[in-house]
Amino acid sequence: MSRAVHPGRPSERTLLTDPVRYPEAAQSGVRTKRAFLLLLLTLLLPGAAQVVAGDRKLGRRALRVTFTMWLLVIAGVVLAGLNRQLVVSLLANEWFSLLLIAVLVALAVGWALLFINTLRLIRPPLLDRGMRPAVAATLALLMLVTSGSLGYGAYLLNVGRNTFGNIFQAGPAFDPVDGRYNFLLMGGDAGEDRTGRRPDSISVISVDARSGAAVTFSIPRDFQNAPFSEDSPLWEVWPDGYNCGNDCIINSLYPVVSQDYADLYPDSQDPGAEAMMDAASGILGIEVQAYILVDMAGFEQLIDAMGGITIDAGGWVPITSAEIPGSDPKRYYPPSAWIAPGVQTLNGYEALWYARSREYATDYSRIQRQQCVQAAMIAQLDPATVLSRFQEIAAAGTQIVETDIPRDQLGSFVDLAIKAKNHDVGRLTIGAPDFGDPGDFFSTYPDIPLVHQRVQETLAAASEDAEAAPAGTLELNRAGLIEALPAQAVTDEITVEYLHQLAVNQDWTTLESLLADNGECTPA
């Protein structure tokens, strides 16, 4: 006599032959394997576990989403290979990044719900008591790896979105001039003890729009007689250049224009920065198109966020203490610490002092160290560092006081920055040692036509070498770029204790002699 089968219930034959969907009659070992199989399916192909063991309609919907996401990821990878600039531009776009954040959050929630549904399909009461914790722990780990990673990715993308919004402005993109983008980079303090904002570090970074080969032109802060072109608003005020003597060194132009001539730049959010761009353009004979103004506190924080920078220092550099009251010229109490020659990994505080210290040395040595620090940052800010320290780097980025670089052009500039890492950075100082010696007063009485000529030679040499030389082998010489300086002789007798005693004895002459070449530096 045959046994009646209740409509809608599986038969005994089905129970015995389909343990994946109906595990009740399966053996204990089969149930355990089934549990881990369903978890693996949800990890590799979300929705597949539901198709084979649960709600097929839900599973098919999840699989459609899964396959769509895989196709989009593959398309994104292909697009990144074909047009990396477009991908970065999309990620930097305010609305696209918001949409991507929403998609990541939805996927994270959906994947988590699928794992929870899979746990229901596993039916833990059917498992051996000893296997239940292992299955639960595996489920929690897989949810952390999948949904947790998607959620964290959405969080990082939102951090980047907010950072871009705080730093970069909305506005039209600009085209390269003569095949190059030219940026003015200024660094300085704007603390309560400072009279206005005076950039202590002034440089123009010129980047080849095609190859990414970059050249840094450093302008001493005490540069005088900066010329302006006839189309500059400052031509009306200083038609013969910024030439009122020591009161008109270039780093004073920023506060002077901000306070007294802001009306000359009625559409600018920062007239002082616009004036500095006009001055840099006149000095170098190239059109400076955008500026970045970095506060020293932001610089220090950024270096720490990168995990420090590694340089090969050629000479001792003091970390200066307080100024001795009434000293003329300015003298300082013995340094609180020293940065020694050789390969050094500097944290933010040390890198800041390495770049700004000018005690017992000339401004030209200081400029050389600034160039070295900039080159080290470019070389060592690699994708792995950015990904592993993204939050810290983004937080430090908000310390950039301001820039007029348009947000919509970030894609092209990030792409250029990646290309620039394949080339050595060319360097030229508009003063000693590239123009005369420190005692020649070139910064006071500059030969502007000669500067323009050398700038063009430098740019041409950089572009030619970028085409001809393999990445990382660009050799820079004084005729076009920077002179290779002789290594400073560092003997065993020069120690921190010895230098400190010289400072205590106020033996400025010996100290200045020992530290005369402390501008020598290369990124390590």
TrEMBL record:
<keyword id="KW-1133">Transmembrane helix</keyword>
<keyword id="KW-0812">Transmembrane</keyword>
<feature type="transmembrane region" description="Helical">
    <location>
        <begin position="65"/>
        <end position="83"/>
    </location>
</feature>
<feature type="domain" description="Cell envelope-related transcriptional attenuator">
    <location>
        <begin position="198"/>
        <end position="381"/>
    </location>
</feature>
<feature type="transmembrane region" description="Helical">
    <location>
        <begin position="35"/>
        <end position="53"/>
    </location>
</feature>
<keyword id="KW-0472">Membrane</keyword>
<comment type="similarity">
    <text>Belongs to the LytR/CpsA/Psr (LCP) family.</text>
</comment>
<dbReference type="Pfam" id="PF03816">
    <property type="entry name" value="LytR_cpsA_psr"/>
</dbReference>
<dbReference type="InterPro" id="IPR050922">
    <property type="entry name" value="LytR/CpsA/Psr_CW_biosynth"/>
</dbReference>
<feature type="transmembrane region" description="Helical">
    <location>
        <begin position="134"/>
        <end position="157"/>
    </location>
</feature>
<protein>
    <submittedName>
        <fullName>Cell envelope-related function transcriptional attenuator common domain-containing protein</fullName>
    </submittedName>
</protein>
<dbReference type="InterPro" id="IPR004474">
    <property type="entry name" value="LytR_CpsA_psr"/>
</dbReference>
<feature type="transmembrane region" description="Helical">
    <location>
        <begin position="95"/>
        <end position="122"/>
    </location>
</feature>
